[in-house]
Design goal:
The complex is a heterodimer. Chain A is α/β, with parallel strands linked by helices. Chain A contains eleven helices and twelve strands. Chain A has helices at about 1-10, 25-35, 40-45, 60-70, 85-100, 110-120, 150-155, 155-160, 165-175, 270-280, 290-310; strands at about 20, 35-40, 50-55, 75-80, 100-105, 130-140, 175-185, 190-200, 205-215, 220-230, 230-235, 315. The longest helix of chain A has 20 residues, at about 290-310. In chain A, about 45% of the residues are buried. Chain B has two domains: about 5-115, Rossmann fold (3-Layer(aba) Sandwich), CATH 3.40.50; about 125-285 and about 315-330, Dihydrodipicolinate Reductase, domain 2 (2-Layer Sandwich).
Chain lengths: ~325, ~325
């Protein structure tokens, strides 16, 4: 994700200062490609910047964000905000206390099809919401070294790392959650591979959210189907793209982690980072707040709790 | 010798389709249909060129080999009883009953009269679902991680109002659609549904209908596979077709995406009820289902879909209502 963000920042007009990584070779390579400095440590990196963009494994988010806030730096943090709700709350509180801004990379909100559907719903084009179906099924992440995604203690697993996108989107479109129920499959003690979750919203609307690291390498399918009293919105990634190519004898190689981006005038990661840049430059509010990220984390946590207890998990009144 | 068939009640929309399906089977005589409502009876008789019998016993007195029960769900038991006493083999629309008590009474009355009972689950006869079952039996997908199932549709009330009548239908969308996918899941794995969780509501016709129109079900099979069913009446009236039967079967070694009615043309036609409309050109599962019913009579054998299949599917729909009312998963017991 650091590489994707670096490319996106480069297109905004900011000065990219440098990068750092627990893996020196990785940061050296990125630094060379972008003509920036590879710092030996995080404190050295944040010394001379206005904003730090955190793309580390999730379990490091809290300490890095708090350290940046204490140093007076604005923060962009990849989603999920944190592994736990107390961690996320502490990060939000630190940034508020230090008077720095915290943006959480809920990038799905910058995907044009998801944004367009949200706007249609908000305009009342499909009436009152009924049933939402949200699909996000990819393959098991296969980073060549340090595959932290599949370590639930570092990433929170598939429910937190992948399904949080649709949990956030569902709440953005349908409002606050009343209750969740979920079922999962995993291989032995291995990572959770496939999950189906039912969400009931306060409004009475309901959603089925399907998430997976379950397909063969290279296959990533996403879809939504949003129905209401006066209409229906359908989209799925199986639809043909504006161009399709067929070459003789070409083997497709899967990327280490699937990203659902194709044939847009601007990729959603760039849209997202441009938004962060503009909001910070002008002082305008972010379109997705840290509290939204916290609420999405709360839904993910409730789904994980349902998987553990086998029962529905109801939300308390204070959200 | 030709097989003589009668249709008991034209209340169900499938009755008119069955009429043309039976015409295509050699040596089958469709004797006629019985229907209590005289205006409707005369209308269907003219529309489909079938002999109308105002009373069920008049049709059954014709000496039928088989009877197809197409009444409202809550009236299945009454007509099954009449047909069984007339010693007809029975094909009954789904869901076979609106309560466990009625479903069990259906079994008893068929046993007492030594007639066979087939549940009308046409989707078992689609080549696409058969291919999926074969892949699962061959282990081609590896261990199955889960199934996401969709059987959402428009509200069927525009075809027949009783579908949205709680008394006659036994419920709304959950009663209407759950059984098809529940049966396919059982059949795919030769397994039973052991737990059901559901969210149910009337989200689409809040002011017009007094039944559930939205339902999401997440169930567990006895082999440990979890599967969902979206049974909602969530397609608008102008949707290009009634709806869908789709599922993703996600396995460790592969995934199969089923869209049973994918084979269709798109028709744009001035003045049509649906514009555009999807015109199916794929195989008609009803045809193969009725051929199985006729075949079971001719060969004097059990049909491939039984009373128990209909019964187990009804239990799932009823468990969904119970779960939604109590907001917790409901166990379904299967004494061995």
């Amino acid at each position: 994700m650091g590489e994707i963000h670096a490319a996106a920042w480069r297109s905004t007009g900011v000065k990219l200062v440098g990068c750092t990584s627990a893996h020196a070779a990785q940061s050296a390579e990125l630094a060379e490609r972008y003509g920036i400095t590879a710092f030996g440590s995080y404190p050295e990196l944040i010394k001379g910047v206005d904003l730090v963009d955190i793309c580390t494994p999730t379990q490091l988010h809290r300490s890095l964000v708090v350290e940046a806030a204490l140093a007076g730096r604005h923060v962009m943090c990849e989603k999920p905000l944190a592994l736990t709700l107390p961690d996320a709350q502490a990060m939000i509180d630190s940034c508020a206390a230090a008077g720095v801004r915290l943006f959480v990379g809920m990038v799905l909100r910058f995907f044009p099809q998801y944004r367009a559907a949200k706007e249609l719903v908000a305009q009342g084009r499909i009436g009152q919401l009924g049933v939402l179906r949200l699909k996000r099924v990819a393959y098991l992440p296969m980073k060549p070294f340090d595959n932290w995604y599949i370590d639930e203690t570092r990433s929170g697993g598939m429910v937190l790392d992948l399904m949080i996108h649709d949990f956030d989107y569902a709440r953005w479109v349908a409002g606050e959650v009343e209750r969740v129920f979920a079922r999962a499959s995993q291989e032995g003690a291995g990572p959770v591979r496939y999950v189906q979750a039912i969400i009931r919203f306060r409004s009475g609307a309901m959603a089925l959210v399907e998430g997976g690291w379950a397909y063969p390498p290279g296959v990533f399918r996403t879809a939504f189907d949003i129905s209401g009293t006066d209409g229906l919105i359908e989209w799925n990634s199986d639809q043909p793209l504006p161009i399709q190519t067929y070459f003789a004898g070409e083997q497709t190689r899967a990327k280490s982690v699937g990203l659902p981006v194709a044939e847009l005038s601007e990729d959603p990661y760039t849209s997202e980072i441009r938004h962060v840049y503009e909001a910070i430059s002008t002082g305008a509010p972010f379109e997705v707040s840290a509290l939204d990220a916290l609420a999405a984390l709360r839904i993910s946590s409730a789904v994980r709790e349902s998987l553990t207890t086998g029962n529905a998990v109801s939300f308390g009144p204070e959200i | 010798m030709s097989i003589r068939i009668g249709i008991l009640s034209f209340a169900h929309v499938h009755a008119e389709a069955y009429r043309s399906n039976f015409k295509k089977i050699p040596d089958v005589e469709l004797v006629g249909f019985s229907h209590g409502n005289a205006d409707e009876g005369r209308h269907f008789s003219q529309e489909y060129g079938l002999r109308w019998y105002p009373e069920h016993h008049e049709l059954l007195a014709e000496g039928l080999d088989g009877a197809v029960v197409c009444s409202e769900n809550a009236n299945h038991l009454e007509l099954v009883k009449l047909a069984a006493e007339a010693k007809c083999e029975i094909l009954c629309e789904k869901p076979i009953a609106t309560s466990v008590t009625d479903a069990e009474a259906i079994r008893r009355v068929c046993e007492q009269n030594r007639v066979r009972f087939m549940t009308a689950f046409p989707m078992r006869f689609a080549p696409s679902t058969r291919s999926v079952r074969t892949m699962l039996k061959n282990g081609k997908l590896g261990r199955v991680l889960g199934i996401g199932g969709i059987n959402h549709s428009e509200a069927p009330k525009r075809h027949r109002t009783w579908f949205a009548d709680k008394q006659l239908a036994g419920g709304g969308a959950v009663m209407d659609h759950t059984v098809h996918l529940a049966d396919l899941f059982r059949w795919f794995f030769d397994a039973e549904v052991v737990e059901v969780y559901a969210e149910v509501g009337n989200l689409f016709f809040r002011n017009d209908l007094d039944v559930d129109t939205a339902g999401l079900i997440l169930l567990m099979l006895s082999n440990g596979v979890h599967a969902s069913i979206d049974c909602s009446w969530s397609r608008p009236a102008r949707y290009p077709r009634w709806g869908h039967l789709q599922m993703d079967v996600v396995g460790e070694r592969g995934t199969v995406v089923l869209d049973a009615f994918a084979q269709h043309l798109t028709l744009y036609s001035r003045g049509a009820a649906r514009d555009p409309g999807w015109i199916d050109f794929g195989p008609d599962p009803n045809q193969a289902m009725l051929e199985e019913f006729v075949g079971s009579i001719r060969q004097n054998r059990e049909p491939s879909v039984t009373w128990n299949d209909g019964y187990q599917a009804v239990r799932v729909a009823l468990a969904a209502y119970e779960s939604a009312a109590n907001r917790m998963p409901v166990r379904i017991y299967h004494p061995s």
